[in-house]
Amino acid sequence: MTSVYMPPSVRRFEPLHMVFSTWVDHLPFGYDIVAALRPKLLVELGTHKGLSYFTFCQSMKENEIDGLCYAVDTFEGDAHTDKYDESVFSAVNTHNRQHYHGFSYLMRMLFEEALQHFSDDSIDLLHIDGFHTYEAVSQDFANWYPKVKPGGIILFHDVAARVQDFGAWKFWDETCAQHETFTFGHGFGLGVLRKPGGNRSADHPLLKLLFEGSREDDGAALRAFYVHASKHLENTRKLKRLTQQKAEG
User: Fold this and answer.
1) Are strands 104-107 and 68-72 parallel, antiparallel or unpaired?
2) Cα angle, residue 200 at apex, residues 69 and 35 outer, rounded to 5°
3) Which CATH superfamily includes the segment(s) 8-248?
4) In terms of domain of life, where is this protein from (predicted)?
5) Best CA proximity match to 131, nearest among 155, 153, 107, 110
6) Between the N and C ends of the chain, which has fewer C-beta atoms within 10 Å?
């Protein structure tokens, strides 16, 4: 696989924004899928402290992608994250202004309220990561699927998380039987869905690996690669912290 495709996350990705989040297991893939798709329009539903969203934005900037990014969230929390104070939005807003001014916008509103701001068949990359009950994920998908371009990508977080009343896993199991999908099972899981249509002839190598692998072990190799990439990124961060501590000590 590496002889055909060397992901940009391996070559140069060092997260500028690190906060506690179960999305940490998917940062290299998040960076790479943006570089592969080169979206003109990217929308995230459910941003919280911004780990996934700013990974997408960093990839947009570092890979010189001419597009717009929107983060939709009330930044008030919910029953799964608990309520949080204004400091969360303040930190996200500050980082956004400092690093991604001009192409990244925070839409502080409910997902349903944001729908009117996007045309059908307009979104290249949609990330669904809001309230994780089966009903909520189903509704988010039903509402936003028409907004995604033919051939566009939808990411679903927590598709392997069977905790509390999370139901993303159940929705994902049903969805995989009806759509073109790829599943990463490590961490809390990440589902990748491709909407039918679009020009497949010019597909990026990563998209080919996700959706056109001819053998089961192709998918297994891709999954193993991103598990390794995530661990490598974590070890690199730990080494950097230890080096800094020794220098300061």
Assistant:
1) parallel
2) 35
3) Vaccinia Virus protein VP39 (3.40.50.150)
4) Bacteria
5) 110
6) C
